[in-house]
């Protein structure tokens, strides 16, 4: 299952947000159920970041989000944002 987080970062916080993601990605990648995690920055809109993750299941990701909330990681991320993030779940189609 693919999870996509689209985030708009406040212009003055872009470098700090990128450093934050660089710090948390290793823990995300070793969290139970995470198969992959990458962060991308829009070339034309540097305040636009996209986090793309592959998870074994939505339940695994929801447990990860609960852990992010419990540890304060989510609260730290929100301080960089200029608006609410967009979180979407994509399931593979059997074709």
Keywords:
alpha+beta, 95 residues, 4-stranded antiparallel sheet, 3 helices, globular
Overall number of strands: 4
Strand content: 25-35%
- The mean pLDDT is 95
- Report the principal-axis shape: globular
Enumerate the strands of the largest sheet in spatial order, edge to edge or round the barrel. Answer: 2-3-1-4
Which radius of gyration do the C-alpha atoms yield? 13 Å
Report low-confidence residues grouped into runs of 5 or more. Answer: none
How far apart are the termini? 15 Å
Structural class: alpha+beta
Biggest sheet features:
4 strands, antiparallel
**Number of helical elements:** 3
Helix fraction?
25-40%
User: Helices and strands, in N-to-C order?
Assistant: EHEEHHE
Describe the structure.
It is a single chain. The chain is an alpha+beta fold. Helices cover 39% and strands 29% of the residues. The chain has helices at residues 14-30, 58-71, 73-78; strands at 2-8, 34-41, 48-55, 86-90. The chain has a four-stranded antiparallel sheet with strand order 2-3-1-4. It is globular, with a radius of gyration of 13 Å. It starts with a strand and ends in a 5-residue tail after the last strand. The model has no long low-confidence stretch (mean pLDDT 95).
Q: What is the compact description of this entry?
A:
The chain is an alpha+beta fold and 95 residues long. 39% of the residues lie in helices and 29% in strands.
